[in-house]
Amino acid sequence: MAETDESLLEEPIASLRHDAAFEKIGLESLAWSPARDEPIRLDPLMTVLSSTFDGVSLVREVIEDLAEIFDISEDLAGYQLGSASNLLRTAGLLSGFDEEPDMALPDSYRYAPDW
Fold this sequence. Notes:
- It is a single chain.
- This protein is an alpha+beta fold.
- It is built from 5 helices and 3 strands, in the order αβββαααα.
- The chain is globular, with a radius of gyration of 14 Å.
């Protein structure tokens, strides 16, 4: 991680909205937020990463845990965590982020899968 990001590592990670709903279907899940009109599909990685957004753990701790669990570099773990954070924020699933997102969700996450 870049030096300018060091202070962010000591911040608590964002938390999921208390009124968000998740339905696991196999390794994936559907997630709903009252802040958005449509549910999104979370792939297996995003499903796992969404459970790390507890509002308590430090970002650094989550990155270290992900790196150890998945046997990947901390840089890659930080990238994946950042991607998950952006997706969950954009989907309206993180607490304190009710404003309109500044980017559209990728089409692969916008609609329910065809099971």
